[in-house]
Target: Olfactory receptor
Amino acid sequence: MAGGRNSTAVMTFILLGFSEFPKLTIVLFSVFLGTYLMTVCWNLGLITLIRVDSHLHTPMYFFLSNLSLLDICYVSTIAPKMLSDFFKKQKSVSFVGCTMQYFFSSLGLTECCLLAAMAYDRYAAICNPLLYTAIMSPTLCVQMVAGSCVTGFFGSFIQRFALLQLHFCGPNVINHFFCDLPQLLNLSCSDTFFFQIMTSVLTVIFGLTSVSVIMISYGYIVATILKITSAEGRSKAFNTCASHLTAVTLFFGSGIFVYLYPNSGDSLSQNKLASVLYTVIIPMLNPLIYSLRNKEIKDALNRWKKRIFFCCY
Model:
């Protein structure tokens, strides 16, 4: 690797990680390790609970179990490398490793589509309750999840292919804990105009389309809820959507802050912290968001506890 812009091609990148907080290394490592382990355990627990309890074999929980699986994969593309780098003097990653780490974008785009599919599911449940089972058939649910995955991976494949066409000839220092796209582009000695246009188009296709589906679905949902005469009925209908709205707000809000907020100067540390939110914290919070106020999840958990108790005695 060379230091000049017009010299040898860069083969490795240096990730600064959280090196600006040297005195907090052990604390940050412990926090992120605990967060990662809780993310995997809570999401696996939710998947298992949905799988073993027949009362939860509905479209809503089918989507939720896939979201949990997606979150496990999502956080696992970033957290292990981040954790291992805490105690390394040279936090390096190869160019190929950098492009492979960018695999998390596939999962991020897939989650955009899946959250939109879940919004449509809530629309069907609240606005067309009598036709809900007919509309949200098992075949359609599987197709929506598969379509989300294929679409997300296709969009990311286009980005990754374009990224491989760029040249990097120095410097090679990334002020982040993973190979974040905006900073990779800043290090490229190629013309990135086409790549930026392509990324903007993909953002419009995935981001705005997903947000539009969510907003339209909730527009109809709100209109339907307002027509419900009883306060109890309105509260029950709203509670079925509150968790999803919270997850959507956290996911899209943190992404917008990172990728639409200026990336220069003092904002780099803020962007890094915001990246921690959507890469590590949100995957941990999602199972809690969907479980804490969910009566069906609580009932399923109580049934599971009773089953374990009777098996033991």
Summary: The radius of gyration is 22 Å. The chain has twelve helices and three strands.
